[in-house]
Each structure stands twice: as structure tokens, then as C-alpha cells.
């Protein structure tokens, strides 16, 4: 039994699913769900002002996608955790959701008891995923020859720590222009367009 109630909000466009989730959560000891939204726009307008610990977020919403909404809300409310609850199991949706700030990724086929367990796990700092999603991530790992130089690896790891190119230049005693050139080369070698894609691909290929 948990000694603190976990406050949830739901963003789900299917009325029956939304109501069922609210009933399951609100009827379970240690959980409450007083806020439910049928689309991303209404969620964006309200959730930041509500006493919410965790948001269950569908991906395929009318208007803005759940990934877009999660990215926006997480950037403005870093204390709130987001769990994607969706039928989408493709690699692109998983990757974009995690990059947007989701702490968990579950399929809607998840049983009510497992869903509650996963919510507790996120509340305690974990990052749960449905078994099918975890399998897809494991299967996506490929060990390839590292195309990056030692200096590029060093800069990539610092990018992964959240440093910008000016901070990196200062820490490793290079000019900002030189660091920007290294970062451009990193993106080119990994065939990516930005920091998030570079970090994801480096992790996926066991480079960092």
C-alpha cells in the first residue's frame, strides 16, 4: 500500500477508453484521476496549472500529436512525468516519444493491474515499457564499427550531458568554431540532423 496518492491526468481522444482508464485509476487505492482531456490542445491549456504527478498520453490524437504535446508540456513542467499509452509500436514513435521526454512507453493492451504497477514504477523514478516495446528496442541494437574519432567521441559524450558547443569548447580548450566543425562531422558520419538523433543513434549503436 502506498502512503501517498499519485495524481494522474489522461489525454485520450477515444471517449470509452478515456472513461475506462479514469474509472480504473480513480477506483484503485493510492491513485486519483480527476483530469481527462480528449485532445492535445485542451491538455496544453490546462495540465501545467494542475496538481498532476503523471500524465497518460495517447500518441494518435486529433490536432497536435501526443508526442508534440508531451514535448511542450515536459519542457514547461519538468516535474511531471509522462507515460505514452498507445497502440503505436514502431521504432520511430518510440524514439520520438522518448526524445520528447516520456518516462515510459506502454501499449494499450497492457492489463489494468500492470498499468498501475507501471505508474508506480514511474512515480518511483523508473522507466517502464511494455514487453513488446522492450523487445523492439533490444532488437534494434546493432554493434557496428565506430566511425568517430576519439575527439568526436569526447564531444558526442559531452553533447549527451547537455552541454552546448560553447561549454564544450571551454572544457576541452578548443575554439567554438572548431567544436562546431567537429559536431557537423559527427552528424555527417552518423547520418543525423541534430543532437537528439545523434545521441539516440550513438546509444543504439553502442557507441556511448
Supply the key terms.
single chain, about 210 residues, alpha/beta, Rossmann fold, Arc Repressor Mutant, subunit A, five-stranded parallel β-sheet, 10 helices, WalR-like
Tell me what you see in this structure.
This protein is α/β, with parallel strands linked by helices. It has two domains: 135 residues, Response regulator (Rossmann fold, 3-Layer(aba) Sandwich), CATH 3.40.50; 55 residues, Arc Repressor Mutant, subunit A (Orthogonal Bundle), CATH 1.10.10.10. It is 50% helix and 13% strand. It is built from ten helices and five strands; from the N terminus they run βαβαβαβαβαααααα. The protein has a five-stranded parallel β-sheet with strand order 2-1-3-4-5, with helices on both faces. It is elongated, with a radius of gyration of 19 Å. The two termini are 39 Å apart. The mean pLDDT is 89.
Helices, strands, pairings?
Blueprint: E1 6-11, H1 15-26, E2 31-37, H2 40-46, E3 54-57, H3 66-76, E4 81-86, H4 91-100, E5 104-107, H5 112-123, H6 131-140, H7 150-160, H8 165-171, H9 176-190, H10 195-204
Helix pairs in contact: 2-3, 3-4, 7-9, 7-10, 8-9
Domain HTH luxR-type: 145-206
Protein name: Response regulator transcription factor
Pfam families: GerE (PF00196), Response_reg (PF00072)
Amino acid at each position: 500500500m502506498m502512503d501517498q496518492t499519485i495524481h494522474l491526468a489522461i489525454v485520450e481522444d477515444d471517449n470509452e477508453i478515456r472513461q475506462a482508464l479514469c474509472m480504473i485509476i480513480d477506483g484503485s487505492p493510492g491513485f486519483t484521476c480527476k483530469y481527462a482531456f480528449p485532445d492535445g490542445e485542451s491538455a496544453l491549456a490546462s495540465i501545467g496549472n494542475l496538481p498532476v504527478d503523471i500524465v497518460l498520453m495517447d500518441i494518435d490524437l486529433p490536432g497536435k500529436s501526443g508526442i508534440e504535446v508531451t514535448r511542450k508540456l515536459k519542457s514547461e513542467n519538468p516535474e511531471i512525468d509522462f507515460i505514452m499509452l498507445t497502440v503505436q509500436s514502431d521504432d520511430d514513435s518510440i524514439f520520438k516519444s522518448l526524445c520528447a521526454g516520456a518516462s515510459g512507453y506502454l501499449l494499450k493492451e497492457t492489463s489494468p493491474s500492470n498499468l498501475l504497477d507501471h505508474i508506480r514504477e514511474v512515480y518511483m523514478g523508473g522507466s517502464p515499457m511494455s514487453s513488446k516495446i522492450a523487445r523492439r528496442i533490444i532488437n534494434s541494437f546493432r554493434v557496428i564499427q565506430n566511425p568517430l574519432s576519439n575527439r568526436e567521441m569526447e564531444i558526442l559524450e559531452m553533447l549527451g550531458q547537455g552541454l552546448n558547443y560553447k561549454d564544450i569548447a571551454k572544457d576541452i580548450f578548443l575554439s567554438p568554431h572548431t567544436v562546431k566543425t567537429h559536431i557537423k562531422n559527427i552528424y555527417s558520419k552518423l547520418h543525423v540532423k541534430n543532437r537528439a538523433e545523434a545521441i539516440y543513434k550513438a546509444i543504439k549503436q553502442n557507441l556511448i
